[in-house]
Amino acid sequence: MKGFFQFIREQGVIGLAVGFILGGAVGKVVSSLVQDVVQPLLGLILGVSGGLNSASFGVLGTQVAYGRFLAVLIDFLVVAAVIYFIFKALRLDKLDAKKQ
Description:
Layout: H1 2-11, H2 13-46, E1 57-59, E2 62-64, H3 67-89
Antiparallel strand pairs: 1-2
Membrane topology: Multi-pass membrane protein
InterPro entries: MSC/AndL, MscL_channel
Keywords: Membrane, Transmembrane, Transmembrane helix
């Protein structure tokens, strides 16, 4: 058991777990922002009632629903940008630099 606890302390497993939990929470907040604020505004701009998720067009009698794809893509881009800027602001990129 001593080796196990030493591994947890030395490898920063607790910090990783806390970061994982906080990352999930930040992801939920940003997803809500995109879904509840950005998508309806884009729906208004594109002239689609019901928000971006309901945007589609018809081709040869078939509906191509591109709105949901755009919504998921926007959600991913915003979450990635937020995590990137938090990572840079906290200077976490310096942690992986080789120690001299």
